[in-house]
Design a protein that fits this description.
- With 200 residues, this protein is α/β, with parallel strands linked by helices.
- It has a single domain, classed as Dihydrofolate Reductase, subunit A.
- It contains 5 helices and 10 strands.
- The protein has an 8-stranded mixed β-sheet, with helices on both faces. The protein has a two-stranded antiparallel sheet with strand order 2-8.
- Helix 1 packs parallel to helix 3.
- The longest helix is centred in the middle third of the chain and has 12 residues.
- The protein is globular, with a radius of gyration of 16 Å.
Length: 200
């Protein structure tokens, strides 16, 4: 069975976005080890699962980075991996015509079918299923026992307000898998396994 792994960046005080849903509030913690880790996770996956908003953000930024001489080596690798990987986007409004230039590698699943189809996806043969961003989607999947691991990179920021990474989330039991830090970064990575609800 394949693992569904959620990878996200958060502030030290637990925010996923800054006030006004400002995703760039976390920009000081981006780059460097975050890009390195994202590339590492993408190499271990063969499916990228995203909500519509995150998919649109990725699609508008990453496709051309592979050929950008100003991008870092990690960013160019992320772009190449994003361009090649199978993408599954959960949306009731996205059309195939809106998925260019990723049309041939994107599958659209409706919200009503998401849990059933993602459950089936996890039972297919393959590498990890990976999620970046997409907090609303993965929060629902976490509540319904479909997330296997949470990888949270904590940036050295206290935002004071914004969108909490866990907002109205039902209780979930976690177990620490790994804790990582890097000599050249103030970011810390915590990796948790998600305990199934029927396991105490």
């Amino acid at each position: 069975m394949r693992k569904l792994i959620v990878c996200n960046l958060m502030s030290l005080d637990g925010y996923y976005e800054g006030p006004g849903r400002d995703v760039m509030a976390l920009a000081p913690a981006l780059g460097g080890v975050f890009d390195t880790y994202c590339a590492e996770r993408l190499r271990a996956a063969d499916t990228l699962l995203l909500g519509r908003t995150s998919y649109d953000g990725f699609r508008s930024f990453w496709p051309s980075v592979a050929d950008d001489p100003k991008a870092t080596a990690d960013q160019r690798e992320i772009s190449r991996l994003d361009n090649a990987i199978d993408k599954v986007v959960i949306s009731d409004s996205l059309t195939p015509e809106q998925t260019e230039p990723w049309r041939n590698s994107t599958r659209i699943i409706s919200r009503a079918d998401a849990q059933e189809q993602i459950g089936k996806l996890k039972h297919e043969t393959g590498k990890d299923v990976l999620m970046f961003g997409s907090r609303t989607l993965w929060s629902d999947l976490l509540a319904n026992d479909l997330v296997d691991e949470l990888h949270l990179m904590i940036g050295p920021l206290v935002l004071g307000a914004g969108t909490p990474i866990f907002d109205g989330q039902p209780p979930v039991s976690l177990r620490l898998i790994d804790l990582r830090k890097w000599d050249d970064s103030d970011n810390a990575l915590v990796q948790y396994g998600v305990s199934p609800k029927d396991v105490p």
